[in-house]
Amino acid sequence: MKRRTRTLVLGSVTSLALAAAGLVGVSLATTASAAVTLNNSDVTANLWEWNFPSIASACTNHLGPAGYGAVQVAPPQESVTLPSTSDGAHPWWEVYQPVSYGITGRLGTQAQFTSMVTACHNAGVRVYVDAVINHMAGSNNTVASGYGGSTFSPSGYSYPAVPYASGDFHHPNDGYCNDADGQIDDYTNAAEVQNCELVGLSDLKSQDSSVRTKIAGYLNKLVDWGVDGFRVDAAKHMAASDLSAIKGQLHTTTAEGVAPYFAQEVMPGGSGEIGASAYTGIGDVLGFSYAYGLKTQFANGTLSNLAGIPSWSLDASSAQTAAMVTNHDLERNGSTLRYQDGSTYTLANYFLLAYPYGQPFLYDGFAFSTSATGASPPSDANGYVTGTSCSNGAWQCSTQSTGVKGMVGWHNATRSVTTVSNWTNTAAGIIGFSRGSLGWFGVNRSGSASTATYPTGLANGTYCDRITGGATGTGCAGTTITVSGGTASVTIPANGAVAIDVAARSGAGTTGSPVSPSAGPTGSTGTVQVTFNVYATTTMGTSVYVVGSNAALGNWDTSKAVPLSASGYPIWTSPVAVPSGASFEYKYIKKDAAGNVVWESGGNRSLTTGTATSYSTSDTWR
């Protein structure tokens, strides 16, 4: 199930006020106390076991400005605290053993959690929570307390802080778990997989309406605090009918007024009731098979085989998949690429954002040794996770790198085209392809730079490589690529990639990510022509306009917006004389025959005119 977005229709007076405040393109929720503008993106940064203040900072300083659509937070609920285990003190898997549904755990307090949600929303980023709802802390625990001070009885299956009692759990030969030891022994047997204990974890009887209500109560508490969706841990170990019933009790999100997004962990293996197809009616499923396939081709340097992805046997369709290169389990068991694979891992993440399969989930956890896969994240003596530093080697921070953030922008600018074209293999490990007429991507998984001429699908012009920095108001921050006659001679670095698109052209600035509004134009002397170009599809009777922060663009008054010509549809265009030597902001709007106005989503776009005689933009409707 993909994220849905509601479009807000504004009258001219209301829209003028919101534009001046930088709140154009908002989505209103039925229960929200305040409107927020969320990025029009389906890319999620999975910041696994980062603490809440560190995630808030990442949203504000990196994820929001780069155009990420969401951030995934590790399980926030109170968990067991284990000062001594075979994996050392406070292993990472503590957070997957809940003691209560209170938000007082090793990642932070309730106040820090709600502050994080607010910070992320203010940055345009949704918040997804890793929800552990299949089970509680294991009955084999010798410790009987959690991080917030809640106590429980492991052997007695008693968790008074929820409260749950023994009757709320599955037990050996109870009519549900027909197994003498109460454990899952046969992972192809649906009754065992869904009704017996997973590695000794106390398995909730989710068939029970009272259990469902308590689980839904926990999730609703988070939704009411602003959470936008969930990664459902161990979803395969709950019957799809139970999970569907729980989801049916959930409130709509406060920011957008829609059902919370679901990404369900359904490991491959088994079919029918425990196959991925049993869960796609509830929400998306994690793309395990896709991650396995990416490892095979990138590790072997056989990228040309990626042309066969449409014929791969994958867990679910693109529209129902949360795609990934790795996650916390997979990087530890070695079944997928991981950060220790260096540039190969980086290239696979670029490809994840470039190829139109699934909703991309980019992963950043903490550094670990492959000989100590259960170790704790960086923490204090009591197990509380300390702040993330991207400079000391203790944490993975690829989601903040120039290349990955650039590819997020590329993905956002091209994702309306859901197929690839102009697929080119110049060698087994060197490929290129385009996303219609919106963008081109090339990747080189070899030890030598490669120069070749590629069909790009793009209009003639000068483009800025996203991976090396994208476009600025006066040129390119990194590599410049010239397209002529639809082709381009491109040098792809050894173990590198190049990505160009219509929203990052030389001198036009990089769009596809929100920008902070400014007070208005500055330093104006004379005028200069700016040709506004935007890729936008419309229905009959609807036209596209540009409006902005100076008089030439209507001073945010939609009744004075500049109409664009559809002669090159779906590219809408018009030259406008604007002040030279000035900075200004602008956005695109659509008007129908009745005069109703729809603003594009995201933050205000910006442009600074310098000494050039003319400028042009190459934008894509958001």
UniProtKB/TrEMBL annotation:
Cofactor names: Ca(2+)
EC class (word): hydrolase
Pfam families reported for this sequence: Alpha-amylase, Alpha-amylase_C, CBM_20
GO biological process, one term: carbohydrate metabolic process
EC number(s) from the headed UniProt entry: 3.2.1.1
UniProt GO molecular function: alpha-amylase activity; metal ion binding; starch binding
Signal peptide: 1-34
Catalytic reaction(s) noted: Endohydrolysis of (1->4)-alpha-D-glucosidic linkages in polysaccharides containing three or more (1->4)-alpha-linked D-glucose units
Keyword Nucleus in annotation: no
UniProt family annotation: Belongs to the glycosyl hydrolase 13 family.
Name of protein: Alpha-amylase
